[in-house]
Every structure is written in structure tokens, then in C-alpha cells.
Amino acid sequence: MPAEPLHNDDTALLLRIAEGDEQAFASLFMAWATPLAAIAMRILKSEYARQEVVQEVFIKVWLNRDKLGKVEHLGAWLRKITINQSLLALQRHATSDKRLAELRLSQEELQEQANALELKETRRLVQEAIESLPQQRKNIYKLNRVEGKTTREIAEELQLSHGYVRNALSAALADIRDRLSTSGLLVLLVFVLY
């Protein structure tokens, strides 16, 4: 839009606003709020941000009303303020988004650290539970869970009955579960990790 020179009505309106005339200011608002809102909306693509920008524009006009006598092209001047305020709003929004992303990343890192510590503590408790098992159960458990051997392979290797090995493995798992439950960490998922 080309800059239009002030009409006598605009000049009189600005002079009245400069003198603190609130009715003149309301007239300016009524005449320009919608066109300025359209400009802000094209830039911001947000109804809420658009409303904020239009409010900021008119607040600036009111707070700087003593300088209104220097305005030569009212429409161009108001459009320029609106564009500048819209760009500032975009910049604030981008900064806010960046901070939010940084906070999310920081929160995720803290959660990962907490999870790692919790996993480490759980593994320690499982290891303590395994070490507290009677020697035969401990050997059977380790052969099954650490080395991945079947109960039949363990029975052959240790020259024990298959039923005994199955029962000993079940008892070992029950002992570990009991020990973890007294620690408040009955985490069956840990057995998958072990």
C-alpha cells in the first residue's frame, strides 16, 4: 500500500489524541484495528498473537501520543508499527520455543540419568540377591540366566536330575523375588535384563 498523506480529519484526530482525548483515541482504534489485525495475522498466523500485537500497537500510540504531531502518513506509520511488533512477537515466540526445547531436552537427560541410576541400583540389588542364594541354587541360576543353558543341559552338566534343576531354578527365582519385594523393588522386568 502506498503511503497516503494525512487528511485534515487525520491531522485533527492525531492532535486531539496528542492532547489526551480518549474519544479521539477510540475513534482511531475503531478505524484501524481491523486493517492492522489483518496485517498482523498474515505475519503471525495466530489469532491470539494477532490480538496481542494490535493491543501493543495502540498502547505504543497512546504512550507516544506527544510525538503524533510528527506523523506525516498515518496509515503507513501504523502499518510499520504493526509489522515491527509482529516481527518482535515472532522473535519472542521463537526464543520461547527454543527455551522450551532446551528445557525438554534437559528434562529428558535428567530422566535418563535417573533411569540409569535406578537400573544400576536394581541390578546391584539383584546381584546381592543372587549372591545370597545357597551355592547350588546360585550355580543353577547363573548357568541358566547368565550362560543361557536349558535346565536339561544344566542337569547333565551338574549330574543332577532334571526335576531337581527345575525346582532349584524356581526356588532361586522365588528367593530373588522375595528379596527384591522386601527392598520395595519387585521388578520382574529385571529378570529379562539378566
UniProtKB/TrEMBL annotation:
<dbReference type="InterPro" id="IPR007627">
    <property type="entry name" value="RNA_pol_sigma70_r2"/>
</dbReference>
<dbReference type="InterPro" id="IPR013325">
    <property type="entry name" value="RNA_pol_sigma_r2"/>
</dbReference>
<dbReference type="InterPro" id="IPR039425">
    <property type="entry name" value="RNA_pol_sigma-70-like"/>
</dbReference>
<dbReference type="GO" id="GO:0006352">
    <property type="term" value="P:DNA-templated transcription initiation"/>
</dbReference>
<keyword id="KW-0805">Transcription regulation</keyword>
<protein>
    <submittedName>
        <fullName>Sigma-70 family RNA polymerase sigma factor</fullName>
    </submittedName>
</protein>
<keyword id="KW-0731">Sigma factor</keyword>
<feature type="domain" description="RNA polymerase sigma factor 70 region 4 type 2">
    <location>
        <begin position="124"/>
        <end position="175"/>
    </location>
</feature>
<dbReference type="InterPro" id="IPR013249">
    <property type="entry name" value="RNA_pol_sigma70_r4_t2"/>
</dbReference>
<dbReference type="GO" id="GO:0016987">
    <property type="term" value="F:sigma factor activity"/>
</dbReference>
<dbReference type="Pfam" id="PF04542">
    <property type="entry name" value="Sigma70_r2"/>
</dbReference>
<feature type="domain" description="RNA polymerase sigma-70 region 2">
    <location>
        <begin position="28"/>
        <end position="93"/>
    </location>
</feature>
<dbReference type="InterPro" id="IPR014284">
    <property type="entry name" value="RNA_pol_sigma-70_dom"/>
</dbReference>
<dbReference type="InterPro" id="IPR013324">
    <property type="entry name" value="RNA_pol_sigma_r3/r4-like"/>
</dbReference>
<dbReference type="InterPro" id="IPR036388">
    <property type="entry name" value="WH-like_DNA-bd_sf"/>
</dbReference>
<dbReference type="Pfam" id="PF08281">
    <property type="entry name" value="Sigma70_r4_2"/>
</dbReference>
<comment type="similarity">
    <text>Belongs to the sigma-70 factor family. ECF subfamily.</text>
</comment>
<dbReference type="GO" id="GO:0003677">
    <property type="term" value="F:DNA binding"/>
</dbReference>
<keyword id="KW-0804">Transcription</keyword>
